[in-house]
Design goal:
nine-stranded mixed sheet, Formylmethanofuran dehydrogenase, 433 residues, alpha/beta
Length: 433
């Protein structure tokens, strides 16, 4: 259903139902969004702070700028192309966009011989680094909802980043389990008040401990699985609690270990993830168990999917010389920005652009009202996927691409249109990938 607006009617408010939210990796598809006045939106169906805040950011369109001066879109496109044609070490980053925008950004990066990375790839790479080293056994949100009878939440509550996780995917009755449905255990992390409310109908156990040492607790659990009576305490969790949890994991029919890697403390967050992955592997010697790594704000999962299917390698890749070179340390955007001589920064989901080194030449594509520490060389306001135009975004579990429809028309171009226009006026001799 597109909306409750009668044909040819301009009456307010207009109510859009069953809206797909593109901002968080959960991909909730049940929002009710009200258009109170032209181009002003409000979420009515949920208290999710991410959805409420993001849908409320719909400032009126503004013209592009070149060196701080308002210009027509075509002139801004030409200026951006001129900047990028002269660059020797360009960076195409931010990449907060939908699948079509990601495809256009990576095509442009191939033309330029640029490095590509997403603004939020730090959390993604805490998981990918482990996947690349060891592999893992992972599940989906649907399997969590329909089959899991024991959910172990490791570390800080993921609902801080994914507010409706427990409401949408844990609290509802499972399709394939007989009552009692499931229990939830928080290991080295305290559930938020909203999480406790969402889980009020389920048995919940909290095992307090040091969130920064949740990997130690996972290792102790893995060691206790063969014989829980020999368990040792770790990370502030008592040996008796480790033994009891190990026994419960052994007896579960379908256990799930969930974590949000972006909430883990550096510098060894990927090692924490690796210990959780090894715990999942060891539990599978006794029963069925899978991991649920949670990520996905600003379609970082979708952009990584596009990069992988286009180039055969994930983000943090250089396209210099016509062949992709993947290096997750060297080509992290925050590191490479120090040596790049031009940056294309795409942030269609939020009006936020980081501060770059002094003198850095920046071409920024972001929503109207974006504040800059330093005025970029070129600023082109763009529409927000799922608000100004239809968009495909990927869910956190990587297996589902959701179609978000456009709700309003502020007269803003989408990222794909702008980047294709820039690529079209680049010199033909630019390197290809």
């Amino acid at each position: 259903m597109a909306s409750d607006r009668p044909p040819h009617s301009v009456a307010r408010p207009v109510v859009h139902r069953d809206v797909v939210c593109p901002f968080c990796g959960l991909g909730c598809d049940d929002l009710t969004v009200e258009e109170e006045e032209p181009a002003k939106l409000a979420v009515r169906s949920t208290d999710c702070p991410v959805a409420r805040e993001r849908y409320s950011r719909t400032l009126p369109a503004e013209p592009p700028r070149v060196a701080g001066v308002s210009v027509p879109l075509a002139e801004a496109v030409d200026a951006a192309a001129a900047v990028l044609a002269a660059a020797q070490a360009p960076l195409v980053a931010g990449l907060g966009t939908d699948v079509d925008g990601a495809r256009a950004a990576l095509a442009l990066a191939g033309r330029l011989g640029a490095v590509v990375d997403h603004a939020l790839s730090d959390g993604l790479y805490r998981n990918l680094a482990v996947l690349q080293r060891t592999g893992w056994i992972a599940t989906t949100l649907a399997e969590l909802r329909n089959r899991c009878d024991l959910l172990l939440v490791a570390g800080p509550d993921p609902a801080a980043l994914h507010p409706r996780l427990f409401e949408r995917w844990v609290a509802p009755a499972p399709a394939f389990q007989a009552p009692p449905s499931r229990e939830v255990v928080f290991l080295c992390g305290e559930p938020l008040d909203t999480t406790r409310g969402a889980l009020s109908g389920l048995p919940v156990t909290v095992m307090p401990g040091d969130p920064a040492r949740v990997g130690d607790a996972a290792a102790a659990l893995a060691a206790a699985l063969p014989d829980p009576s020999h368990a040792s305490g770790a990370a502030g969790v008592a040996a008796g609690d480790i033994a009891a949890l190990a026994e419960r994991l052994r007896k579960a029919r379908y256990a799930v270990v969930a974590w949000a890697a972006s909430a883990f403390d550096e510098p060894h967050a990927d090692l924490t993830v690796e210990r959780l992955v090894r715990l999942v592997r060891d539990v599978n010697r006794h029963t069925r168990c899978a991991g649920l790594p949670l990520a996905g704000h600003d379609n970082v999962v979708g952009v990584n999917q596009v990069c992988t299917w286009r180039f055969g390698v994930p983000l943090r890749t250089s396209l210099v010389g016509g062949a992709p070179l993947h290096d997750p340390h060297r080509f992290a955007w925050a590191r490479y920005a120090d040596v790049a001589d031009a940056v294309v920064w795409v942030s269609a989901f939020r009006p936020e652009v980081p501060a770059f080194p002094a003198g850095q030449t920046v071409v920024a594509l972001a929503p109207p009202g974006t504040a800059f520490a330093d005025e970029p060389a070129v600023f082109i306001p763009v529409g927000t996927p799922g608000i100004d135009h239809p968009a495909h975004v990927f869910r956190s579990d990587t297996v589902v691409a959701l179609r978000a429809r456009g709700l309003i028309d502020r007269g803003l171009p989408d990222v794909a249109t702008v980047l294709k226009a820039i690529a079209a006026v680049l010199p033909q001799e630019a390197p290809a990938c």
